[in-house]
Amino acid sequence: MTEVRVPTLGESVTEATVATWFKKPGDRVEADEMLCELETDKVTVEVPSPAAGTLAEIVANEGDTVGVDALLANISESGEAAAPAAPAAKSEAPAEAPAASGGSSVDVMVPTLGESVTEATVSTWFKKVGDTVAQDEMLCELETDKVSVEVPSPAAGTLTEILFDEGSTVEAGGKLGVIASGDGAAAAAPASAPAAAPAASSSTGKDVEHAPAAKKAMAEAGLSADQVQGSGRDGRIMKEDVAKAAAAAAAATSAAPAPAAAPRGPVNADDASREERVKMTRLRQTIARRLKDAQNTAAMLTTYNEVDMTEVMAIRNQYKDAFEKKHGVRMGFMSFFTKACVHALKEVPEVNAEIDGNEVVYKNYVHMGIAAGTPQGLVVPVLRDVDQKSFAEIEKEIGEKGRRARDGKLSMAEMQGGSFTISNGGVYGSLMSSPILNPPQSGILGMHKIQDRPMAINGKVEIRPMMYLALSYDHRIVDGKGAVTFLVRVKEALEDPRRLLMDI
């Protein structure tokens, strides 16, 4: 008998509600097949079967509250009598075909996608049905809201089945395809190809039980199920889906639609023939949604200043060779700006805080988000506890996170938990801009291009390397005085870096 227990639910989360059981006692289950779905305050967690066998007993029913590591069910591994029922499970029967041909088969599964990420889009298949693959060779690439995930082959053999084509949405823990090894591998490929159709349609026509918390939220918001787009399994409506629908309804009634939301006007046939339509990636959709949410939620305002980069550039030129020789990393400007922001946040802590309901959460740490442009879009890796790190440690981590961001190798955990963000538009030549907040943060600093300009210095005109700085902030929590003070402290620290040593 194998026990099915509640997995780890996340930091500080100790209990969950059993939302839906996908199996009932007596059903045959395979290893890693989804048994049930748990719902916490923030995320939905799917519980896979730890072993193949028969679901003998369900201990925690739908609607029950369970703690971490609590017993959910028992699986009988000796219940071989249930094997004849396997053909009734339409999506499972094709998986046995390669074995009948004298070879063995291995399922290609969707890997863990990150905390609170339940689905991804198949962006690219590097192999096609019938191709021979080596163990750990890359089969396909998945794209989530933030990162790209490569799926390696779990075994050497022949790719005999692809269940989801490029552009399809897959769930965490779901099956992507089948690898067959042995003499019957090649013969199994044609037989397994049609299996994708029943697998894709096996969930259609099914009565979907929406999450209990979602039902309650819909009742409170006065919404019906047909007004909410479900993002859970089989279109199941989750609590966060209701929140999005309610926010969209409120925005629609409180303001006129923005020009960007208006339907596209008529296009003549000649122009239309020269256009190309490309579906937005999940990352781009998420960027668009989060940026618009920031504008709709925060009372966002931007204040500007300029900084003379003479002293920072002089220090960099004087010590860059010795710095790189000792620490193995080049000295850039980002470590100076990071340290200057840490210095300013000590004096103006509300810029490092966030609003939670009717409370302000002040953070006695600085987790710095560094916005980075990638071929896939903008991502913001987070450097944790930068207030405790040296210039060299900051430069090393910025370089390492930047490379992994460009390669799409960042995990979700590495892009969560930031308390303040720096965005450097200067690397693209931007002279002035107003950065948008990264919710739920209350401040973001925009750096820009360093440009020589004539400045009045002690009654004389001198040419100095100047940079415009922009601080966007949430006026609900940060007053104008605090925002200006923060930007002035950053300016002072950069124009006289000795202040950082003296902490003044």
TrEMBL record:
Forms a 24-polypeptide structural core with octahedral symmetry. Part of the 2-oxoglutarate dehydrogenase (OGDH) complex composed of E1 (2-oxoglutarate dehydrogenase), E2 (dihydrolipoamide succinyltransferase) and E3 (dihydrolipoamide dehydrogenase); the complex contains multiple copies of the three enzymatic components (E1, E2 and E3). One of its GO terms (biological process) is L-lysine catabolic process to acetyl-CoA via saccharopine. Residues 83-105, 196-234, 254-276 are annotated as: Disordered. This is Dihydrolipoyllysine-residue succinyltransferase component of 2-oxoglutarate dehydrogenase complex. It comes from the Bacteria. GO terms for molecular function: dihydrolipoyllysine-residue succinyltransferase activity. Keywords: Acyltransferase, Lipoyl, Transferase, Tricarboxylic acid cycle. Pfam families: 2-oxoacid_dh, Biotin_lipoyl, E3_binding. NCBIfam families: PRK05704.1, sucB. It comes from Donghicola eburneus. Residues 1-76, 105-180 form the Lipoyl-binding domain. The gene is sucB. Residues 209-246 form the Peripheral subunit-binding (PSBD) domain. It catalyses: N(6)-[(R)-dihydrolipoyl]-L-lysyl-[protein] + succinyl-CoA = N(6)-[(R)-S(8)-succinyldihydrolipoyl]-L-lysyl-[protein] + CoA. One of its GO terms (cellular component) is oxoglutarate dehydrogenase complex. Residues 214-225, 254-263 have a biased composition (Low complexity). Its EC number is 2.3.1.61.
